[in-house]
Target: Iron ABC transporter permease
Amino acid sequence: MPMSSITSRPDAQAPSRSRLVAGGLVLPALLAVAVVVSLLVGATALTSGDLGALLSARGDRTVVGILIGAAVAMSGAAMQGITRNPLADPGILGINAGASLLVVAGITWFGINSLLGYIGFALVGAALAAVAVTALATAASRGFGGSGNSPLSMALAGMVFTAGATSVASALLIADGKSLDVYRFWQVGSVAGREIGDIVPVLPLLALGFGVLLVAGRRLDILAMGDSVARGLGEKPEKLRFVIGGAAVALAAGAVAVAGPIGFVGLVAPHLLRPLIGTSYRVLLPASAFVGASLVLLADTLGRVVSPPGEVQVGIMTAVLGCPALLWVVARMRSL
Model:
């Protein structure tokens, strides 16, 4: 069965009332639990003397984690929809690699070492990656007789771009040891030490991405049924992919710029939800935001306690937990 079958079966598009009720109750409760755990659990125990300072620091970290997790998860769900590829996410489509490459270039050539500098270069890198992957996919698809982007060509173009960008970034880092020392603290992906003010520079991007995707669910449902069906219903698939893809890139770019590349959340969150609420993107997109935020908070909290008094960064924790989750996704695809 082709990969697109997960998102194109007619009987799976409309979520049942019971699924909607279950999702509406379970997902907010899950996020609430994750918030409480994030505030109360850490490498340092809460005591009356430092209670206020710890809760303040963890409060900022929790808010940042919620926004980053929601952004990455919604971005991944949207990318799976526009490519009709259930393995798509910002990492696979080259967005993270593009952001990382420009951050490395900024560190090596311009000496940036501040969060604001990382944000600026990461945003530019993510945008350039989206343009490059789209151009590569279009060229590849037309070279094989197609008329434009296809799900397979987008995924392959993303993988090719990721390989190339990673190789160039590695070459730059090997040539400059100081750049490697600076870059490695951003590259692992972390919400530790982030404050609410760090989100401010990317709030316009996040607001744009959230806004577009929250109203794009019905059109993504149509797009998931195939370009010919979408055209028959009066939609323009290429335009839809451009608009929805742009919103997904905005969310991914904003998240990567602030917290570094956090893998697997955008891939796994939609797959965790489909058995619970169905595959309609009208519901899947906002639900993914809840699950993504919860996953990042829980992974970040777990990273604080697995190796006290130190911490394991959230990007490492999501990678460790994401590997078996990826195997589960592949096994589930094969069984459908």
